[in-house]
Design a protein that fits this description.
Length: 187
């Protein structure tokens, strides 16, 4: 089976997922992920927000527009890479996913997505995604920009685009990290 079919099969398995509390906390749909199943670069965010929950695609709101702008400035379209979140369902009031929610989603879906796609490098966007992958607390401003080997492959933690919307002076740091990840993915 090719990667497109494998991902589709996984998506269908969890389209009505009820494995964690988020299933009953007002989600519109499971936001699985999107982009190129053969991508060498994967981006992992935190969880869908309001727009993502409605449209069924990660990073389509303001943070997503910022991300797309950075990718475009590096000569990459978001369709060329694979984008997903740690939690596939929108948490109420956009709160951070609870550890049990992240853990369920990581084990059941995310680890399998990574196994299928086999990206050369994964950019974790923000502390929630980075902590969920590393399984330990992270101070993202200290750990961003450096690659870390994990059992799920090489990750490059960086700042979350929503943080950049609130702290515009940090734009360059996110742009630099995304550029490094793109370069590595092409090497
Ligand atoms: N923030 C995230 O972490 N993921 C999205 O999909 C949108 C905003």
């Amino acid at each position: 089976m090719n990667k497109i079919n494998e991902l589709e099969k996984l998506k269908q398995m969890y389209i009505n997922c009820t494995s964690c509390p988020l299933a009953k906390l007002g989600r519109t749909q499971v936001v699985f992920g999107c982009g190129n199943p053969n991508a060498k670069l994967m981006l992992i965010g935190e969880a869908p927000g309001k727009n993502e929950d409605i449209q069924g695609e990660p990073f389509v709101g303001r943070a997503g527009k910022l991300l797309a702008q950075i990718l475009e400035s590096c000569g990459i379209n978001r369709k060329d890479i694979y984008i997903t979140n740690i939690a596939k369902c929108r948490p109420p009031h956009n709160r951070t996913p609870l550890p049990e929610e992240s853990k369920a989603c990581k084990t059941l879906i995310l680890e399998k997505q990574i196994e299928i796609i086999q990206p050369k490098i994964i950019c974790t966007l923000g502390s929630c995604a980075t902590q969920a992958i590393l399984g330990r607390p992270v101070q993202i401003t200290k750990e961003r920009g450096q690659t870390i080997k994990t059992n799920l492959g090489l990750i490059l933690p960086t700042l979350h685009p929503a943080y950049i919307l609130r702290n515009k002076t940090k734009y360059k740091l996110l742009a630099e990290d995304i550029e490094s990840a793109i370069k590595f993915s092409k090497s």
